[in-house]
Amino acid sequence: MEFVKKATLLSGGVDSICLTYGLMPDIAYTIDYGQTVAEREIYVSKYICELLNIEHKIIQINCRSLGAGTLAGADNLRFAPSEEWWPYRNQLLITFAAMMGIKDGVSDLHLASVKSDKFHKDGTEEFYKLINDTVSYQEGSLKVHCPTLNYYSHELVSKYNVPIDMLTIAHSCHISNLACGKCSGCLKQLKVRHELKID
């Protein structure tokens, strides 16, 4: 019988917390790739993994000079679909996590993109099919999964029966380690809280 070792990419936002809680992987990776909010993302992710007794690893590779938009503290490119858009970001993060995962004996890497992410090309079914084909084709045959694509964030909470108090620590801000309350990440989290009737 083939051994399956599962990993999640955990950013400390609502979606990745829900997936990690529902999947209970063997290991979770948080990546500091030079984003403006890395410190808080690492803090929240570490806290969640301690609560769930999941091994947590931080991957640090500073790519800020390659980024654009609010997550890089830089100007948007003219064709950016949103203010936080960072060129090839999901591809970059999946590559870093897969590189670490292969060394850790991971067979399946799981990510959380939701319905509202589909206006990004790298938040679509087609992207995840292509990236899985590319990664699994290579040595190690690691597979990439995104089981959350057909759900909105608040639906994930119900799907995985995530305790509400675990979500109150989630950090989705794209600008600051203290939530600004105005960026698209903060507005998304406020919308989720409203839909879940969290005060």
TrEMBL record:
Xref: SUPFAM superfamilies: Adenine nucleotide alpha hydrolases-like (SSF52402)
Group of enzyme by EC: ligase
Keyword entries, A-Z: ATP-binding, Ligase, Metal-binding, Nucleotide-binding, Queuosine biosynthesis, Zinc
Designated name of the protein: 7-cyano-7-deazaguanine synthase
Keyword check for tRNA-binding: no
Reactions that this protein is recorded to catalyse: 7-carboxy-7-carbaguanine + NH4(+) + 2 ATP = 7-cyano-7-carbaguanine + 2 AMP + 2 diphosphate + 2 H(+)
InterPro entries: QueC (IPR018317), Rossmann-like_a/b/a_fold (IPR014729)
Ligase as UniProt keyword: yes
Upper lineage: Bacteria, Pseudomonadati, Bacteroidota, Sphingobacteriia, Sphingobacteriales
Cross-referenced Gene3D superfamilies: HUPs
